[in-house]
Amino acid sequence: MTLRLRLAGGTALALLMIHMPVAAQAQSSADLQRQIDALRAQVEALTAALAAGQSAQPVAVAPASAPASSATPVALAASIAPPPAIPASSAAPKAKAWYEKLSLRGYTQMRYNGFLSGDDTAAAGVSRLRSVHDSSISDRGGFSLRRARLVLQGDVSDRVSLYLQSDFATAVNNQAGTERREGFAQLRDAYADVFLDKEKSLRLRFGQSKVPYGWENMQSSSNRLTLDRSDAINSAVPSERDLGVVGYYTPPSVQKIWDRLGHDGQKLFGNYGAFGVGVFNGQGTNRTEQNRGLMKVAFATWPFALDGLGDAFEGQVFEIGGSAMLNKVQPELRSGAVSTIAYEDNRVGLHAMLYPQPFGIQAEWNWGKGPEYDRDSLSIETKKLRGGYVQMMYRLPTDSVGALMPYGRWQHYRGGWKASTNAPRLETDEFELGLEWQPWKALEFTVAYARMKRAEADERRTGRAEGDLIRTQVQWNY
C-alpha cells in the first residue's frame, strides 16, 4: 500500500512537469504556487482514499482564478488509480510438506503404592504380594514413573499415516546384580497405516502395533479407567504389541456412533476398527521371533445405539464383540536361554459393555491354553487357562470441579504368564474400588483401594499372598 501511494504521488508530479506549457513557465510566482497547492491537495485526497481502501475520487480544490492550463496535470494525476489488489482467498494455498503434518503429544503417569496390610515380604520360596503390571508394589515402595510416553504421528499423504511411540520409563536389571535401573527408553509402536479408500474406513497397518485381542488390551493406558489391565486378558499379549501386519475395517455407521461417544467424553478403546484380522511374529514386544509360525488373530466389536428403546435409554450405547488367537510361543528359561519347544498358545474371548451415561458396566472373559510351569514335572507344559473381569463405573461430569468417575472392578485368572521366566502360573483374585478425577483435560488423579490375593510370578515361590493397598496415580497429558 505504501509503495503504491508513493508511486501515485510521484507519477502526478512527473506529469505536471511534462505537460506544463512553456507559457505557464512565465507566469508569476503566485500563480505557480496556487497550482502547486492544488496539486498537493489532490495528492493528499488520493492518499486518504487509498488508505481507506476506496477508489480515489479527487476533490476539486483549485481556485477559480487558476489558469485552465493548470487543470490538465491535476486531472491526469487524479485519474491515476492503483491496480486492484488480488484477494488473499484467490491465491493458491501452499501445500504443506509432510513434516508439517506431524504432531507431537504424550502423557506421563507417576504412582505411589502404600501397603495397609499384607504379605509385602515373605520367607524364601513363599509368594510375596506382587503384580505383573506394577513393579513398585513391593516392600521397597516409593514414587515411580509407570509410563512416560511420547508420540509422533501424522498423515504423510492422503493415503498414508505414521505413528511412532516410545516409553521413557522402562526399567532394566543391572547386569552385575539384581538392582533395577529406571528411566530407559523403549520402542512401543512403530507402524504405518495405508488407507485403501478415500473414506479411510479400510486400512492396512504395517509394523509394531497393538495386537487386536481383547477390548481392554487395545485401550490406551492414558484412557483406561483402572490403574492396570486385568491379568486374564493381558496374559494373551503382555505389553499388548507385536510386529506384523493387520487389516482394520470400520463401517461408517459404526464410526458415527464412536464419534458421538468420543465427543461426549467417553473412554473409547482407540483408533481401531470394528473388524480386525492380522498376523504377527507371536513372541512378544521387542522380542526376536523364534519359529517360523505366525500368530493369527481376529477381532470384532459392534456398538448398538439404544435410543429407539425409549426415553430411559436416550444416548445409551451397548457394545459387544469377541477375539480369537492362534499362536506358538517359546518362553524364556531360568537358564537365560529361550525354550527350544514351541508351545501352543490359543484362546478365545468375549467382551461387552454399556457405556456410562451415567452408569455403565464393562466385562471380558477368555478361555484357552498356553505355556505354564508344572511343579510336578519341573518343566513347562501346555495347560488350560481361563479368567476375566467385571467392572462397574459411574460418570459424573461437573462444571465446577471437573469430571468424576468412581468405579469398582473384580478380576479372576488361573493360567500361565508367558512373559515371565519359565511361564509361571498366576492365581489372581482381586477387588479394586477407585475414583478418577479429571479437573482439566491435561491432568488426572486416581485414588484406589485394592484387596489382592495373588500367586507371585515366580515358579520358585509357592502359595498365594494377600494384602490391602492404597494406590494413587497422577497423569498429565501433553
From TrEMBL:
Signal peptide interval: 1-26
Keywords from the UniProt entry: Coiled coil, Signal
Coiled-coil annotated spans: 22-49
Pfam families: Porin_O_P
Highest taxon of the lineage: Bacteria
Entry keyword DNA damage: no
Keyword Signal (UniProt): yes
Protein name from the UniProt record: Porin
Species for this entry: Sphingobium cupriresistens LL01
Record lineage: Bacteria, Pseudomonadati, Pseudomonadota, Alphaproteobacteria, Sphingomonadales
